[in-house]
Structures
1.
Amino acid sequence: MDTTVDKGKSPSASGGGGKRWRLWPYFQTIPGILYYQIVSGLILAAALYGIRMLSGVLIASTGHEAVTTGDFGFLFTTWQGWLVILLAIAALCLYMIFDLNVKMIYSSHILREEKSRTSAILKAAVRSFRKLTGIRGLLLILYVAILVPLVGVGFTTQLTKDLTIPNFISSVIFATPAYLIPYAAFSVFMLIEGLRYLFILHAIVLDGMSVKEGGAHAKKLMKAHWKHFIPHYLLFMLIIAAAAIAIIGVCLLVPDLIVTLASENAAGSRFFSVFMALLGSVLFAYFYEVMTPLRILELTRYYRMYTDGTVLCVPRAPKSRHTGRVIRIAALAAVLIGISGVMTAFYDTLFPAESTVGVVAHRTGGTLAPENSAEGIEKAAAYGVIGCETDVQRTKDGQYIINHDDDFKRLYGVSKKPSEMTMDEIRQLRTADGETVPTLQELLETARAQNVRLYVELKGETADRQMVDDVVSIIKEEGMTQQTALISLKYDVLDYAESTYPEFETGYLYFMSFGDTTKLNVDDLIIEEQLAAGPNIGMLQLGGKKVLVWTVNEEDYLRRILAGDADGIITDQVEQAYEIRQEMKDRDYRERAQDRIEAWLY
């Protein structure tokens, strides 16, 4: 990559002479990047801990335990809730200062070969935030923290980097043209706008411009240089990714060979399997953590070149002794060896040969049969599922039928809601295959005959206390109290059910939360698949809750969740889930360790 540049012109890949781009200096910056990552991380961790504690007190004072997707209205109706919202905005502001601003300022120091003093960089980051105050600044912060991770163009904060549209929503969008077309149009619009304003934070933080001035400057730069920037930046990302993959591959090759040679020795094979899995996870985390700072460094380089019209390359670091580097690598290896030894001693407990995660068939049988049908329960039971999930709604005349959607349009061709039709009218409905609308009693009878637990979701606008009372009465009449769980997206409904009918198992479905959800008044926490990451499941289980994950249909997610510690997985792909469970029985020591550690650290 040639970065020769003339004043007012884009750098040209074919230009002769001048400074040239090199990969190695980027890797030389990584120790400094990690240092500032740690310093900023400690500051933010302390601040976030205080914000969480204060927010927890405020939430508790409203009579709630947590903020979740099914119980957040109180935030807008209480003064405590508004304070929690302000604290959340304060957290985003702190992350802008000590996460993004610090990285940009440090990148500028690297490019200008200026001596980096920690206190000076932190103070400069704090001072630069003054330009982000006001309505425009707040909108920019929300854009960077929320829209950027959703759209995927630009860079965002560590706090919100994993923010995505839940899979159960995105699957509906991609399967429905009426949703997909506007979503695609919005995504393209945001992609273009994200590129136009890509350098706005650099203009504000590095050159002290206002939000308005920075936006105008960013648009001007991109308009003039986008033909140069886009291919060169994509090439940079490709090179960095390839280098990271190559390094990880080489570092894992030797342990992999050792595992192969040690396969005749069970203890040795187990130890090196754990060691290799840990090493791979550490290397992946290492590059994952430095990827965003490296991107910001490269963007800062282009911002300075386009703004100043001068050639800039990441300079080589001065030669230094390798003793410190060797000591750090040796210390890390010693830690990994020690952890591997401990894990090996408890190998079968930590890395079970078979999945311990139970399978729950979504909409009674998933893809095995027509959705929410008695046939689905029968076919799912044949696979050995621990339960079947279904959706109950109330009719106009107070009866209870099974239907997932708000109306009958998709399955039965009628654009009316269950609450707008009587049972007699609903009985006349037919699917294209001649299937009728099942009743709750019919599915309870089938579940009892198949000895399958039925997870009954209290669904739609009719999910209220009356539904709880009526459904409980029907379940008791069928003698299914111990074989049924009441679940819902509405926390207040489940809170009433758990308080009034404690003999019933209750499960709360949610896909976003803040606060201690283990204190919620339910038995089961049913979390969206993207929340089932890292230590989340284990922490919820330590809080005394049973944890299920919904709705998991993609193969990669199925494998990860089935290799983890969840109590159950709700899926439409029952057959595939059991195929994966069977495959897991044939895994070798290395695969068992790798699958489990990936599930823990994802």
2.
Amino acid sequence: MLKLSEKKLIKIALVGQPNVGKSMLINSISNSRLKVGNFSGVTVEKTQIEFEYKDYLFKITDLPGSYSLNDYTLEEKVTKNYLEEANYDIILNVLDSTNLERNLYLTSELLALDKKMVLALNMTDEAHNEGMEIDEEQLSKIIGKPCIKTSAKDKTGIEQLIEILITKYESPKFETKLIFSDVIEEEIENIKKLFLEKKYRSDVHYREIAIKLLKEDKKTYHKFHNEPIWLDLQPLLTKSFEHIYLHFGTKNIDDIFEDEKFAFAKGAVTETLKEIKKDSEEKTISDKIDSILIHKLFGLPIFLFLMWGLFQLTFEIGNIPMDLIDAFFASMIDKTKEILGDTTLSSVIADGAIAGVGAVVLFLPNIVILFLGIALLETTGYMSRVAFLLDGFFHKFGLHGKSFIPLVSGFGCSVPAYMAARTLKNERDRLLTLFIIGFMSCGARLPIYVLFTGAFFAGENAGNVLFLIYIGGALLGLVAAKVLKVVVFKSEDEPFVMEMPKYRMPSTKLIWHTVSNQAWMYLRKAGTFILAASVLIWFASNYPKHLEYEEMMNQKIEIATSEEERFELQNKIVLYNLENSYLGKIGKFSEPLFAPLGFDWRMTVALETGLAAKEIVVSTLGILYGLGDELDESSETLIEKIRNNIPLASALAFIVFVMIYLPCLAASMVFAKEAGGWKYLVYLFVFTTTTAWILSFITYKIASIIIV
């Protein structure tokens, strides 16, 4: 038996809101020695207990009951000062299980302190009698702190609580899982980045400092005001607050973080509290809306209907300005050639640079409409509900409910979809989501699908086939996620709170800010990459030159007797040059690899040019099948050529390959940046290419057997 002086001392700060049963919990611990006094400098009463358990001496300080860690009341001020300045090992947060949501407001503030913590879910007997059942294991996973059900009245869970406190004391401290809304998290990361760049020395985690700065904590501001880093920190904070004010529509930072606490608490309760009996008159308007929008039966159909409507708007309205944009860039190409003449410079500028940029800008209306719809759904608070709604379904495939936001964005463009994956804070969840975004067919693949469905399927069935292609890609993505989760990203699911913010009317200012920023980001990043890729493809498809062959064919053109004969001879020149260009040689070299899929060298080259931009696939097919490059997916001549030169089985395999293989160069670059390195892009290339080849091979073989 160890002497008292040899026992390990565990100092515990006992925290909770008023009337959560802290005093009863202390009294239920037997053989305790109580000391009653006052906190230094104030008249607020302080209760301390000491007791021995095995090889440990516990010293618990019962802090005044506080609804939050503010300076509004003397009790709150005492509790806040003690937690921030005193020497203790663990926070024991006592919660009233019958009022879990209200009690979690304080828990969210305690998590921000980034200390070792244990949660005692007290009054579980009363909660059970009121028809409430808390999943404490799920709550533990969500917030990253152990949760123990206790009843001070029945003295249940007390010994287990003490054992957990010992385990927590002996274990290393893990980073808290408290996550704020995306806009707050973005600004926390910006502040942390500054501290990291400046190599700022601090005993407190950068994240905790950042949170206090954003909460306008007076002590923290006073501390930094006289430090050199303040010169860089002040303008950064000004920008951060401008962004936050715009998003929340208020400059009252207390109200903003109240909303954050509400979203955290409501999200945690929604995910962990079951079988709650609530009278209809007690329900708030938010609860009534939630009862419909996240209903087990109606919630998913409502979401699917809204998304169907959004995609209808995206493609129907988005297609209206596309002809104008297409005509504008076509006239720019013509004007450039007219001014510069038939020279290499005019070709590289017109056919390379302008055509490449035009291919990106062409789909901007679709992207803007999709962003606008998603921004509307996000700012109203609906998207968080859908994340919760889909969480259970997505977990079956190894994904988190929040993955659906970047996945949905992937139907518009993979570039912003990869950036949207930042909302997933768990590294494995984020990487897994990044790896399957490419399975969601982006808008740039639509022309390819339209071309092939128009060539092989009757007009009335083409729309249904398109729908099946999009749904099929999404389902393949989910299956791929499950395979990756089992084989590569092996880990236990780590759930976190999906915030349930209050419903708000959408802010025009915020919508404009969000959509314009994302549209500009799309143009800047995608335009830059595709511009470079287009020039590269132009060079690869135009060199080396074959002047002798061209001269011989030009002589034949001069003596040709009809326009049709001249057109055929000119196309022969284009086809010969392309077939013997660097690009053609690559296609010929890689043709044996794709031959088992039923692809000829032309289809192979088209796929390879699609690595730069999927929009280029259609025009490449037009060039390769001897029709020139002035074609689009609706060209009757090209559709006829595709139908006559490509078997249906090969066409189906081609569609499957396009659905799965590596996204365009712009998206690939962004993927590498978001994933954290070029090695992940190599993994993505191997994974998508292998999957695309295998599934295309299966499709080709099955189709060849069926279509005889």
3.
Amino acid sequence: MTNPNTLYANTFVDALIAAGLKRVCLAPGSRHTPLVLALARHRDAIDLFSHLDERSAAFFALGLALASGEPAAVVCTSGSAAANFFPAIVEAHQSRVPLILLTADRPPELRASGANQTIDQIKIFGDYADWFYDAPLPEADAPPVALRNLRTLAARAYAIAARMRGVAHINWPFRKPFEPGADDAAVLAVDKRPPTQFVQQGRADDSGLPALLTEDLLARPGIIYFGHGSCRSEAERQRLLPWARRLSDISGFPIFAEFSSNMRAANTIGAYESFINAAAMDFSRVEVLIRFGAPPLSKAMQDFLEQASLRQLIYCGRTRDWADDSHRITQHLRLNPAALDPKEWDAFAPQSKRADTWREHLTEADRMARQVIADEIENGAWFDGAVLYDVVDLTPAGAALFAGNSLPVRHLDQFGLRTAAPFMAYANRGASGIDGNVSTALGIGAARKGSPLVAVLGDITLYHDMNGLLALQRCGVPATIVLLNNEGGGIFHRLPARAFEPHFSDFFITAHGLDFARVAALYGLSYVRAEDRATFRQAFTEAVGGPGSTLIEARTDAIADLQRRGDIMTAIHRKLESSHA
């Protein structure tokens, strides 16, 4: 079996050199052996400079980068060796000279253990390193995503050093043995594939995307996907939406949009969570993904990304931050949604009929899924997903809709199927925590004074930030708060841990028995308890159009709700299968 140290070091170094690294300085030692030997495989293609001490090596690398204008790398063993880089790192940071630091380190079990030659190397250079990453401990039988991570890690390190003109530091923990096995060289050929490319754009209104849309790419089945935060204001939506529609027209790729992307509109696909894993759809044929915003909220979309055989994944983000936990991005672009112009696509003709057929295929599947969901909600048992369906249906134009984390934001995405939502949707999806959701929602309401505010929150989420309700009157922010009360952490019923009773009920569901009518009275809200759909729709319509604040509690059953969701998805899959029979 290949030594995992060799596999990880070679995978990373091959990608780093493919990204553009040409010059490396090395100091002697032992624990950095996997990195040194990985670099030595490329000694005919890059310049390797051997030094007797780390301080000189780092300053020599500084000179290489200063004169060439390109990142240089410097590599050392663990312990005080890394500390000797520090003076050169300070100079590189102050002078904005691009350096890449590769330091070997002890594995976790030897850190803080008294082991010889072991110091704390985590962020050892502090703010003088513009970017730090503690690399994963090499493991045998690593999953594919772990090796893809090493390639994107190399691309990111090089891009950060080159573009920020700064210092990127990667700390590498290695266990013995450090040397490759007898057969490793034969097994591990040099990988010359280019890693993720960080595309350099010109003007703010130049997305850089047209240059990537080759004839070969446009001939393949693809999807345009808008994740959370793709646009954050109506002004951004007014620029981004027509630009995206033109992109869809010239590529033949359908537009998939999460609800909190604020990109759902006519001719965009929103019911994908309910059918992306349907056998009748055959998403395995997708070869191109053009992605915007945060990584997908949908578990089905996440699974698709992990399993898909994508030739290209083009990511378009508003910052240079990495946003791909599947580590599949092939090209990374930075764009400003408010600056985009549909005229950027004037040089392109509409795509071929074959590509249009692909888009029509998915659009028809979306239409059928929406119809099944509407029929089930109109004629079937009421459940928590139906609450979000009605919230989206009844929220007025110009309002702000905040969805709490856990189930509400997921139900909003799956069941919020209004063709065009003339309001802005928000959620705390950066860290995706349930803390502070009440206060965040009310802050949004205060910033949009005069517009209706709707917040849909789970019971544990509301409890977690109940004191935030004081801002309703203290800060003068009226709101309609919809409470999905399933008596505990209902989302955990989706986890395998549900089979482990009684521990699951005691430590995951955490039933509370709270009387939220008393909570409403304490903070001065009107209160309505909705046991059925008609009551909820009437209470919501009256509340969202009124001047004060109302708490509408929808009591649901987590197990029954989960079953109801599953039954609806089964009905959608059957509908699609019958249409393809």
